[in-house]
Fold these 2 entries.
Entry 1:
Amino acid sequence: MRMAVTGGLLLLATSVVAMETREERKARILAPTTDFTKAERFEAFQGGSGTNTKRFDANAFSLPSGTLSFEERSDFFIGNGVFDRPWVAAPSSTIASDGLGPFFNARSCQGCHIKDGRGHPPEPGDANMVSMLFALSTPDGHGDPVLGHQLQDQAVPGLAAEGRVSVRYEPLFFTYPDGTATELRQPIYETTAALAPGTSLNPRIAPPMIGLGLVESIADADLIALADPGDADGDGVSGRAGWVDGRLGRFGWKAMSPDLLAQSTIAFLNDMGLSTAEHDVAWGDCTARQSACRAAFHGDDGGLPEISDDLVDLVVFYSSHLAVPARRRPDDAQVLRGKEMFYAANCTACHTPKFATAADAPDVLRNQLIWPYSNFLLHDMGPGLADPNPTGERLGGEFRTPPLWGIGLTEVVNGHTYFLHDGRARSLEEAILWHGGEGEASRDAFAAMTAADRAAMIAFLESL
Amino acid sequence: MKPTTFTSVIALGVFTAMGAQANTARDVINGYADLAFAKYSDSLVTAQALDAALDAFIAAPSEETHQAAKDAWLAARVPYQQTEAYRFGNAVVDDWEGKVNAWPLDEGLIDYVDASFYGDSEENNFYTANVVANPTLTVGGQSVDAAMITPAVLHELHEIDGVEANVATGYHAIEFLLWGQDLNGNGPGAGARSYTDFDTANCTNGNCDRRAEYLAAASELLLSDLEEIVAAWDAGGAARTDLEGMSDAQGISAMLTGLGSLSYGELAGERMQLGLILHDPEEEHDCFADNTHNSHYYDAKGMQNVYLGSYTASDGTVTTVPSLSSLAAAANADLDAEMNSKLEATMAAMQVMKDRADSGVESYDQMIGFENEEGNAIVQAAIDALVDQTRSIEALVAVLGSDEITVEGSDSLDNPGAVFE
């Protein structure tokens, strides 16, 4: 049934130019392409050799990387169980599974990272925030003095939650140079929460879980090399590294977490109210002024964190090894044209197409050619998208470039096409049009394209 | 029993080579759906018997009616656990099952729980922010009207905005109401609730009328949920239609993927290995009733009977359908023999675990206890057998269900991981 052609093709892979050093070879492979007549070599395998080539359905984001061995997949699946597990309020019989809250946004990781994919804002008229939350910050970048770093709209039985947020949208119109008009929507938030004067609501959609271990395995130096904080090359795109206690931040909308352990444990703490050895605070994000929350039951029986190291390790392992789906039509003529337009509009200044993962990364992640379409740096996205207040030293308008791999499967996996940090964009087109600040020149280049080229660029994004 | 008709005329050369007796892949897919219908129907019948026993218990609470209700719950779990092989690979089932079998449970939301082992509860030894004790209460930061505890109220608690919000319904809610908390840790003993918790004339722990109301509502909801899934597997039902819409290879692959996912990730991994890692007495699936050994055993049994295409219902009725085994045997007799022997090895290992619990040596929560080498080894042997059978399932996927989508271009058979090495 199978053709035995693998061996022959492998020979091609190893027929590299003689005398080339490893660094030269890496530079050659990672150089931006100038040939848009055909797909690049390995381009279809966006997530390297572990790429999911099997399923492009609703479970497309939930598969283990193909690089995991049969035995390693066991840890992946157990980690998946922890990721899906609904944590319950203490006290309960399930001691290892309790400790939720007292305040929380979701009771499981999967509750926001639905199908390991992208979250969404509530539909109009729907009051519940599912898979979206609001970070809180004061004009000087700190958490709210009473409500803390995040608004939790859920609480354990008997305790009132911090409040709810409702969203409505006001229409905005964008007219292309060719006269085509399109409608965008600007979110307006209202809350029942007693925010301190000046505290802002900073919306955050849950991002997809695919390829995160590969992102973690890119060498710091390869990312820092892309920063151009003074815009020395004069292309209008600067980009800076976001530092966290001396380490390069690369996860979260503001790049506030340097690695998946940090990102996972802060999510346990703030999103679910669960303590870990890293954040050993059983009451989660309740401040000293929220005495009822602090006095409620917690799950830190025997003085141990609510979530043991074993469970944290399993979640981190799981989060590290979700396969990135393969490109579906990298050779399609319209897709290739769209790719050319993506490069021509200088989108690649931030959405860096490809990287090599570090040689010293774990076995199953090292030396991979990956195509995340992100430089994972902070960029000013302009006032239209900006949070009202900064977060720590990240300015309100600064966001980390999100990776684009898998973005074309959003509708298949999550049943919607809401994009950007707050889900305001209802399509990829709207998401592009919202790009301001450092992204504005590329946005304008996109707008100036012919309708056919704009459609081609969207087709390219949908093929990712 | 639903009549089975084989109208498929698809003749795939690969599988019909064995002669006129051979089942086609489509026969096997249809048979798989028929077997699901039989299993869920049996689950519904035994849940109806449970409902009747609960009615009798609520009408006249006594040790006898309480025990009869517990026995009916245990009997209802036998067919249900055997349906779990259908949970993975069938989106309709997976989306539905949280309503009836979600775990862990929000006990403290349902009824009183003992908070004393939390240390800081001098004034409030029994935590009472629960539905049974409160006609109105705050859940998830929102006020809920529970003046009357109805299936609709429980459904509302369970699901907010289409997302599982609280786990307060299903088999485990009924289990908790019948048995109460298991406060024995890794020591012997299940939950020990007294029938007087439901005796309005001689009520213990308060709110016996509301507790009975909760029990009746949870049972009613379970019945309607099971009716829904039985219909999904009947002619024209959503689960059956999904399979009918798949190609032969996709359908067979879905069946095998379901078996593999339950065998490896769910049962061997999340339910058993994780419990063994944590040595947590409550990482057991039917913890209040100390019925976890049966829960695991019948999960495994359900996988075996899906493969063999034969299910024996609680009343002895046997449903036999064209089996995966027959399809596998036609394609690769050695692999089919290997799969059969591995399923038997799993059942043998599960039997050791089940016998140990049934004979009263120790329950499953004790077996996974810290430093219980003998008990741990018995559980580990069952895990290892499940893992081993998964390897054969994967080999079967390659033989019978291969529809791996080839990525365009000649590089698809290349190794992108090698480019920087």
Note: The beta strands of chain B are 113-114, 126-127, 136-139, 142-145, 159-160, 163-164, 310-312, 318-320.
Entry 2:
Amino acid sequence: MSIRRPVPVANVRARVLLGTLLLATLPIASVAAQELDPLSKLDAPSKFTVQLLVDSAQAAGLPSRALMSTALEGIAMKVDGKRIVAAVRREYSFLQTARASLGPVGDEELTAAASVLEAGAKPAALVAFRARQNGRSDLEAFTIWADLITRGVPKEDASTAITKLWQDGADDAIFHSLWNNVQTDILQGLNPGTALQNRIRETPGRAPPGPGKPPEGQQENQSSK
Amino acid sequence: MTEPKVAILIVTAALLVPASRGGLAAQLVSKIDAGQYSVSDGVVPMSTFRVSPAVQWLTPYAHVTARGSAYLTDQQVQLADGIVSGTFTSPTVYGVRAEMIGNASRAVDDRSLGTDQVDVQTRVHVLFHQHGGVWFGGGVARPWRIAVISSAEVADAGAWGKIGETTARFGSATMTATFTNFSFSKIASLGDSGSATTSAASACDVAAPSGVASSTPLRALFSESAASVDACSRQSRFADLEGSVHWEAGPLELTAQTGHRFGNAYDVTPDSRQWSSASATVWLTDRVAIIGGGGRQPALPLRGLPARSYGMAGLEIAYSPMSKSAVPVSLPHAVLVHSFEMHTAPSGLQKIVIHVGGVETVDVMGDFSDWSPLTLVRRGRDLWELSVPVSPGVHQINVRVDGGPWMAPPGIPTVRDAFDGEVGMIVVQAPKSDR
């Protein structure tokens, strides 16, 4: 007959604490190791290909950060490695095309133009943006353009409208106002193409001079209420 | 003016000052409750004006909270209690999340005696589709200044679930059930007849659980206060089963809880067997609410505090209200996000401002965060903010509430992303000097 010895209270306490500590640290340790390399969650072949494309972009003077961002978005969305590689390849191709259309422009312009191409615009439509006044930014125009196509505005209509406004000297506020009006009409049930045609007629090409222009601070970035 | 008064006034004023300047890494939130507080235990005045400031420092994986309360009596400010709490949370991996929690607290039960306690606990949470979950954990609580209580082993488990939506006609309700077991050694003395402990004469006669020496003479163990009395050590154990419901609809929040304490008569006093309490909050604005409530609290043997009934009515002023729920909840619907703004803050960071009501967490992620989620800080009842460094240019951004699906924020241009989802596009202008 065996005699069961009492377990000291201190030992029980130590075991409970040690066990819970171990449980708590396991996920932390594994995640900490993964965070050292942002692409570590990709399978080896996909990671290799993405890294190759990023290096190629750097060598070609294209914004490699855009490619890395696409890969990281895919990882965050838990997308399959093959789809991530395909998306990064496509992005690389859009950046190359944008560069060919726009000429030597900054990384931000190239990235924004690539999003227009990805939305479905034709590369030839970008050529109108080659010529620009000193200090004028086309980022807002590209963003609105991509959005309009995404919302269902016919690609040709969207390209024509945005290009015309740009050539007429429209500023960011005018582009944003057009977008705001069109998206409101679409949300109210109007056909996207019709909404753009209606609103483009009442949109001035050039920002009104003088006191009618809103203060700079109010134009900064975007917001909704 | 006495020093405590000055300190309390400074802390109170500081808590109302907009505090977020930390950007991506950390945020500060704060609130103050003030009002009339009545209690039946006799250790604080029956009815007193009470001020309870609280401040919380938040990072994605760590929270540090400090809160306290003081009451005004006989034209003097008297500290009542205070706690500093730290929680470290791991990322959620396959619905599993770990937490390490540490607390240091003081409860002052009259003007000459305060009890301190340090406790450490770990928990493992399992989340079910963000609408419910379970957790379990354990730890150790070490009371100080209570000579008759040893360190206590604490084991707890719980479950929670949420039904409804805040925007629905009848709002949403979160139900929580917890079971907490306390196990500790208690020194019962012949002279001890306090309500939080039991009559030692009887307690020493009770057979201790297996493995614990029962009725051990303690003269040799305690050389100070306990040495002068006849005493024995016995293993004590009790468990609390608690249930709570938090209902939220429009500007109204109601919370009700009830509990039952299991344990033998030597460990649980009759007035701590069952308890219930309720509170109501009516939000007048984003940052100001009327609060009221009352009920009964059980004894806290580890703190030497007796059971008490209480009632309170007052005002809550919050620069950024703290979450009232202890568990994560979910309302994953884009329509809840009423508005989204991003503009340049004076610090040069980009300030993200989102209006969404009735949720527990709001996250954003985009290319500027390398597609890692950043948690916004609640600045009002439906106001969430975060300041982040974002370089000039076009950026992609998505938002989610309560851990739900990612979606493009409302009110900004949206495009299809590379993975058949939608993502918001925002243009950050270069500073004027750079143009």
Note: Residues 334-434 of chain B form a domain with the Immunoglobulin-like fold (CATH 2.60.40.10).
